[in-house]
Write a structure and sequence with these properties.
The chain has 940 residues and is of the alpha/beta class. The strands form seven sheets. Strands 3-2-1-4-5-6 form a six-stranded mixed beta sheet. The protein has a six-stranded mixed beta sheet with strand order 7-10-9-8-13-14, sandwiched between helices.
Length: 940
């Protein structure tokens, strides 16, 4: 089709799409080879959306995606420093640029770039040609540099805001019409592109001047008439610089092109070509959307590198399942129907189960319904607590019709859910376990698809159902927000229309069974069966029981602490302001930054986008370790103030709101699959991050108390990660010291600094302790300097001497990184694999990826050991009047009758110290310290 009157040309700013996609999405790598593809994925989705939206009467007849060819253009010949301020491209973005060109071609769109010219110049040239041919032009971009082209049949479209940009919008932004934009830009300059302009003149002033004098040349010719002396001098002295800036901002509308407008005619994508590209990129969701759009079959996944074993794929091919059909789901409304489903579960030997409730807080949630699935595609929902609009006799909403009485349903469900011959399959089964437990049903045995994924794929992706369904089944589940809404208008699930709720809930059970059908055979191939069967799966009921038991917390003690913390904060504020020499808001990062960097002259001040200095903890710790004594003192005091403030808001204030009114106890929730290394994460509230190094942090534990007649007992692994390091790194000196029961930190200090262990200065031992633990986490000289508040050079010297004294540790680190690079994962002593997809990344993230790979086998092994101990503990103490209440990293907390303290400590210590065996025989002994008292603080 010849381009002419009536034609409509779309020009897509490809570079803008790429950077939007890169910054909008988290890092993503192709599973087969670790290639970064996050920006490509976002770019492809944006292009597909563009094609789908570009329909109707105003659809383009011609279109092209325009890219920058390289960073060097003719403008660098005019001004060599042009764009010199721009940072280097992120290392993980660089290899994605050519892939976005491939994506454009796969979508059958013209892909254009010209050496020596920017994308904006090509867009300007094509826009001129189209306008002169009588056609219309829409530039898909919000780039201000392109606004000089608007008018005469050319407009812009910001697709992110769905906002057209015409002459009025340009004038609103620049204060001048499009034809005068380059004059304003020449005066204002551009710090991003390093265009100098007229120093001291911004957009608003430039617009005032151009509107007053008409154009840039007239302004410069009459600059001596300007009344403001500084502005007049700038315009006269910098006239040549301003004219050069105008050349830099003016788009070249005569860029040489080797194609015509006619060749840009819109063509539909060729489905086979597009699907092949998307499939090779491993974009499973987009591949399915495109296949559905064009009525094609989803191609089989490409052969990818084994991550779980040499024979196993990280994305196993899905078993043959029927398509998910919402119309096929059933609603169970009476005992006869429920009985038929339960009989099928007995015949199968398994059933996928999911609960719907009124809250995510299992200790307060009410059961609304139960979904069941016997085989993929055959699922049902049993509604039990859905309400309808009218009020019942008690003033609340009445139950909707067509639901079984709750107790009748539970009586039928209980035998099946507790039947040892029927496997109950769930996703995040700990939640459902606790819900049923509160109704008198103890679900067993179980399988958990979340934990199966976690056992095989830790480090690769999240393990929530939506993520797993999208990634492994190519299906996006119904979003919960579609049913309950969000924000102030959000409702609880019992208020959701029963028919809609049934489809949502049954789909959850259906997806769960499909994932189980895929993951169960993969566990063995991924060599993850041992970890799953001995640690993950059996831990579910153990944690559920701990969470339901809770721990008694005295709100009055917390309230008194809050008042004490408030007084201490006030005292610190007074001291801070005295050191500063002036009053200011200690909680204001902006005011603090101005005092530290402008008044006190502290080094390292960097302003953010808001113009305020950064004053994060890392910045303040650097200053506290600096030689600027006044700034160092101020930074240290502010760090102390912030710590007290956090303790007050996060713990002493917030913990009071977490006391369950029915039990009078706090019930935390543990995330089994939260950390890649196997460590548990505590939430709602988080009881694992209460500081123990400060006196104030330790005092918070005083509020955690035993019931009358009982005692709190703490059993804590002594230096378990250092012991594991001594074992895996084969360090004879450390191994012998642990065997001999020597103070490991004092021994390290003696080895490093040549001082005797007897009578050692506590400060020297503290330095050695910081290094011992810091090395495990790959600490740098910067980090150690912050921890000890000493100069960086001194801290680095400590680390250097440490590696000289214990060369085996450096060898372990190097070997671990090399293993991770070669295999894409690291492994604990117990076979837990932690994938390291970013290990070959370049740039700022590379150091973090290496440190994580070094630490993971050590921290992961410690997590394995305490998990193994926790799994064995209930049977070991079953005949004792004791309960395991909390796990805090390397520590287990119990509540026990006063007369059973010693037997509990003896039994629990034996379980913990022997937890590694028989799988691993450590070269060093595991030692568990025990304490007891009326409170956690006394016991620890």
């Amino acid at each position: 089709m010849a381009f002419g009157k009536g034609c409509h040309l779309h020009l897509i700013d490809g570079s803008a799409y790429i950077f939007r996609a890169y910054h909008a999405l988290p890092p993503l790598t192709r599973k087969s080879d670790g290639l970064p593809i996050g920006a490509v994925a976002g770019f492809a989705n944006m292009i597909f959306k563009y094609i789908e939206d570009a329909k109707g009467d105003d659809a383009p007849t011609h279109a092209a995606v325009i890219f920058d060819h390289s960073s060097k253009t003719f403008r660098n010949e005019i001004f060599p420093e042009y764009k010199a301020n721009r940072p280097e491209l992120p290392e993980d973005l660089r290899p994605q640029f050519p892939l976005t060109r491939e994506a454009t071609k796969a979508f059958n769109l013209a892909c254009i770039e010209t050496e020596g010219y920017e994308a904006d110049d090509i867009i300007a040239t094509l826009a001129r040609q189209a306008r002169e041919a009588g056609g219309r032009v829409t530039i898909i971009s919000s780039d201000k540099d392109l606004m000089q082209l608007v008018g005469g049949g050319v407009e812009m479209l910001d697709v992110m805001k769905n906002r057209a940009i015409g002459r009025a919008e340009v004038e609103e932004k620049f204060g001048v019409p499009p034809e005068r934009v380059i004059d304003v830009q020449a005066l204002a300059g551009d710090s991003v592109d390093n265009i100098p302009g007229a120093p001291g003149i911004g957009i608003k002033t430039a617009a005032l001047l151009i509107n007053e004098y008409g154009d840039l040349e007239t302004l410069l010719a009459r600059a001596d008439e300007i009344k403001q002396p500084k502005r007049r001098e700038t315009l006269i002295e910098k006239a040549d610089q301003i004219r050069m800036s105008k050349k830099l901002v003016t788009l070249d509308q005569n860029t040489p092109l080797d194609f015509t407008l006619d060749s840009l005619e819109v063509k539909d994508p060729e489905p086979e070509t597009l699907l092949e590209f998307l499939n090779q990129m491993e974009f499973r969701t987009l591949t399915k959307r495109v296949a559905d759009r064009y009525g094609k079959d989803v191609p089989p996944p490409p052969v990818i590198e084994a991550l779980a074993s040499e024979a196993a794929s990280s994305v196993p091919a899905a078993p043959e399942h029927p398509a998910i059909d919402h119309d096929a789901y059933e609603v169970i409304r009476d005992a006869a129907a429920l009985g038929r489903w339960l009989d099928q579960a007995r015949a199968k030997g398994w059933v996928a189960v999911d609960t719907e409730t009124t809250s995510l807080d299992e200790m307060r949630a009410e059961l609304v319904g139960v979904s069941l699935c016997i085989e993929p595609g055959r699922a049902a929902y049993l509604p039990l607590g859905h309400k309808q609009g009218g009020d019942d006799l008690f003033g609340g909403a009445a139950l909707a019709e067509g639901q079984m009485p709750l107790q009748e349903a539970l009586d039928l469900l209980k035998p099946v859910l507790e039947d040892a011959a029927i496997l109950k399959i769930g996703q995040n089964m700990k939640y459902d376990f606790k819900i049923f437990a509160r109704y008198g049903i103890r679900v067993a045995p179980i399988d958990d698809t979340m934990l199966m994924s976690y056992s095989m794929h830790a480090g690769l992706h999240g393990h929530g159902m939506d993520t797993l369904s999208d990634r492994y089944l190519g299906h996006q589940p119904i979003p919960i927000k579609d049913l309950i809404g969000s924000g102030k208008s959000q409702v609880t699930f019992d208020q959701v229309d029963l028919d809609k709720a049934a489809v949502y809930a049954a789909e959850d059970a259906d997806i769960t069974l499909r994932l189980w059908d895929m993951f169960k055979p993969q566990l063995h191939r991924a060599r993850a069966t041992t970890v799953y069967e001995t640690e993950e799966r059996p831990l579910v009921p153990v944690l559920a029981d701990m969470e339901m038991a809770g721990v008694k917390v005295e709100a009055q003690v917390l309230s008194r602490m809050s008042n004490a913390f408030a007084q201490k904060m006030a005292g610190l504020e007074a001291e801070i302001q005295e050191v500063a020499g002036q009053p200011f808001n200690v909680g204001s990062p902006k005011q603090l930054g101005e005092i530290l960097f402008e008044v006190m002259g502290a080094e390292g001040g960097k302003k953010g986008k808001t113009g305020a200095y950064g004053t994060g903890a890392d910045v303040l710790e650097d200053i506290a370790a600096s030689e600027n004594e006044t700034a160092a003192k101020l930074a240290g005091l502010v760090l102390d103030w912030r710590q007290i403030s956090k303790l007050k808001s996060t713990y002493t204030d917030a913990l009071q709101t977490h006391v369950n009114p029915e039990t009078g106890r706090v019930h935390t929730s543990y995330s089994i699959a939260g950390a890649n290394t196997g460590r548990l994460a505590s939430t709602d509230p988080n009881l694992q991050n209460i500081p123990v190094r400060s006196e104030e942090g330790r005092r918070i534990r005083e509020a955690f108390v035993a019931e009358p007649g009982k005692v709190i007992v703490s059993l804590d692994y002594s230096q378990i990660e250092l012991r594991i390091l001594a074992h895996v790194a084969r360090i004879p000196a450390l191994q012998q010291a642990f065997k001999d029961g020597i103070d490991i930190h004092a021994m390290t200090a003696s080895e490093m600094f040549g001082v005797p262990v007897e009578g050692m200065d506590p400060a020297i031992r503290r330095q050695a302790k910081a290094i011992n633990f810091g090395v495990i986490y790959g600490i740098s000289g910067f980090g150690l300097a912050r921890n000890l508040r000493i100069p960086r050079a001194e801290a680095q010297g400590f680390i250097d001497r440490y590696f000289e004294r214990f060369p085996g540790i450096r060898q372990y680190m190097d070997d671990t990184v090399e293993f991770a690079k070669e295999h894409g994962y690291v492994e604990t002593l117990f076979g837990r694999r932690i994938h390291t997809p970013e290990i070959n990344a370049k740039g700022p993230g590379a150091g973090f990826a290496k440190r994580a790979a070094i630490n993971a086998p050590i921290q992961g092994a410690a997590a394995d050991i305490i998990r193994r101990a926790m799994v064995r503990m209930p049977d070991a103490i079953s005949d004792m009047p004791a309960k395991m209440l909390l796990q805090v990293h390397d520590e287990l907390i119990f509540e026990v009758d006063e007369g059973a303290v010693d037997p509990l400590i003896s039994t629990a210590r034996a379980v913990m110290e022997g937890a590694a065996e028989p799988v691993v025989k450590l070269a060093v002994p595991l030692v568990v310290d025990a304490g007891q008292g009326a409170s956690w603080a006394e016991a620890h």
